[in-house]
């Protein structure tokens, strides 16, 4: 893999190259002098060191196993055989090093070319048909939560909106609708194939649904039961009706009753006067109880409950700027780190799995989540006893800990040292507190009042006061000897002193 830039430079003539040995020209010329295929290792061992083809294949297999004793033995055998054929040992050492590097990630030619061909096809599709490509990718990996979340994040980076399912536009799988991608109905938890078929059949018969009542009157309510419709509402699948989800939910019982009555009438060949009036008046029946919409966090939680993901917006997105000064990594970048690295992440605590240690005390595995993905967190008994309440609070947290990489599976988790609510992170983690006062706007005596407020606070932060002078160009910088703690109460008090004050704790 490390030779890819070199290969590209040679292929396009940006770099000249020579062959270590004359015998290598015929073997490596098709690949610009770089070993690319396993067959080339076999050819090199045979022509350069005099191995039989069977010995050469054993050589190729042994070098690929990355076992020091095997590699040492093969190196000695390869160099001894090649020296007998008149080659310089220095060049042979270099050639064997190249072979060993290739063996870390090498395949046979048929494997490599087949993968390359599929890669070119997918690269073309992703470039020229990005929405269709990403919709297909999301569908193909729908059962893998981590991959779906990774692909959703990639869609955001590509500027492709991914919306919740839409009962009027969604199919079974992810589909493209205009400039966006829609979740498939199959992605909604608790909705089976029979219910989806019933929805698509009704939509085919009547066109788009205009509201909840019409939906309940035309889908087969024996297959689309109350739990299914609740999941449709919570996931946002009825957003195209233009009514808040809370109102739809409040109207559900009456809508189902109305729908069941309409379906019984149709089955018996009768249409009530009320039913005829509804059919003629269209939206007349789509009147919902006047209840307030669910709070934003509740909306997002329902969305996650039904789809497995926050789709409309992640709860942490509104805290991104507040968390940024106190975090070093996210759940995706942590996976690339070696064992034992100190990290800080902004997270929401998800599922908590409790277990007991040998002393009978509870410890826990916590599923941490941010906008990039999920991560396992180990919380020992002492910490779990201390932090259990805030792990169930659903508030944004700063997780402080160290990476722990499993030597067998190579999986990464974080061993927690501390959980800090975002509401207190400024006070606990800030190392510098900057106060800027524009004297052109500030009230008289504000500096004296500020000193009085700061005198009541003791902490770890180096504090600097910057005064913007009346000319608007020059500044006076005052560095306080006293270190303070930028608590929420202190910040509130400082902001109340005067106009023209801005604060930054980092």
Describe the model.
Helix 12 runs antiparallel to helix 13. This protein has 506 residues and is an alpha+beta fold. About 2% of the residues have low confidence. The chain starts with a helix and ends with a strand. 29% of the residues are buried. Helix 19 links the parallel strand 9 and strand 10. The protein contains 20 helices and 12 strands. A 5-stranded mixed β-barrel has the order 4-5-6-8-7.
Poorly predicted residue ranges = 273-284
**How many strands in all?**
12
- Largest beta sheet: strand ordering: 4-5-6-8-7
Hey, roughly how much beta strand do the residues contain?
15-25%
Mean pLDDT: 90
Radius of gyration: 33 Å
Shape from CA axes? extended
Number of helices: 20
Q: Report how far the terminal alpha carbons are from each other.
A: 40 Å
Structural class: alpha+beta
Please outline the major beta sheet: 5 strands, mixed, barrel
Helix content: 40-55%
């Amino acid at each position: 893999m490390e030779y890819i830039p070199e290969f590209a430079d040679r292929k396009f003539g940006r770099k000249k190259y020579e062959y270590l040995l004359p015998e290598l020209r015929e073997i490596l010329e098709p690949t610009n002098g770089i070993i690319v295929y396993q067959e080339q290792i076999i050819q090199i061992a045979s022509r350069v060191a005099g191995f039989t083809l069977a010995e050469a294949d054993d050589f190729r297999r042994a070098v690929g196993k990355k076992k020091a004793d095997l590699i040492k033995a093969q190196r000695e055998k390869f160099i001894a055989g090649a020296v007998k054929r008149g080659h310089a040992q220095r060049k042979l050492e270099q050639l064997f090093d190249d072979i060993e590097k290739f063996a870390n990630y090498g395949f046979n030619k048929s494997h490599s070319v087949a993968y390359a061909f599929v890669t070119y096809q997918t690269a073309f599709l992703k470039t020229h048909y990005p929405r269709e490509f990403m919709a297909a990718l999301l569908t193909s990996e729908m059962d893998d939560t981590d991959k779906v979340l990774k692909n959703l994040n990639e869609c955001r980076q590509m500027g492709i909106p991914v919306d919740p399912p839409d009962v009027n536009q969604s199919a079974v799988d992810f589909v493209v609708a205009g400039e966006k991608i829609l979740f498939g109905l199959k992605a909604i938890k608790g909705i089976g194939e029979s219910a989806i078929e019933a929805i698509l059949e009704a939509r085919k018969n009547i066109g788009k649904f205009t509201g909840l009542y019409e939906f309940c009157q035309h889908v087969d309510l024996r297959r689309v039961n109350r739990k299914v419709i609740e999941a449709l509402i919570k996931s946002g699948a009825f957003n195209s009706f233009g009514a808040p989800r809370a109102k739809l939910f409040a109207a559900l019982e009456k809508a189902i009753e109305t729908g069941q009555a309409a379906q019984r009438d149709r089955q018996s060949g009768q249409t009530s006067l009320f039913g005829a009036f509804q059919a003629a008046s269209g939206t007349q029946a789509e009147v919902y109880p006047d209840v307030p919409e669910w709070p934003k966090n509740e909306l997002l939680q329902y969305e996650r409950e039904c789809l497995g993901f926050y789709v409309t917006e992640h709860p942490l997105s509104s805290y991104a700027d507040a968390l940024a000064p106190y975090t070093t990594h996210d759940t995706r970048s942590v996976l690339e780190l070696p064992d034992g690295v100190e990290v800080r992440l902004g997270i929401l605590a998800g599922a908590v799995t409790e277990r007991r240690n040998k002393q009978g005390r509870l410890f826990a595995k916590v599923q941490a989540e941010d906008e990039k993905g999920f991560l396992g967190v180990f919380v020992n008994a002492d910490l779990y006893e201390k932090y259990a309440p805030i792990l169930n609070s659903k508030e944004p947290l700063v997780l402080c800990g160290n990476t722990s990489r499993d030597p067998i599976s190579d999986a990464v988790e974080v061993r927690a040292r501390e959980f800090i609510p975002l509401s207190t992170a400024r006070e606990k983690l800030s190392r510098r507190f900057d106060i800027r006062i524009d004297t052109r706007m500030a009230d008289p005596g504000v500096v004296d009042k500020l000193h009085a407020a700061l005198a009541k606070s003791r902490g770890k932060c180096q504090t600097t006061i910057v005064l913007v002078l009346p000319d608007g160009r020059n500044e006076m910088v005052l560095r306080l000897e006293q270190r303070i703690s930028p608590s929420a109460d202190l910040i509130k008090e400082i902001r109340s002193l005067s106009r023209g004050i801005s604060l930054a704790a980092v």
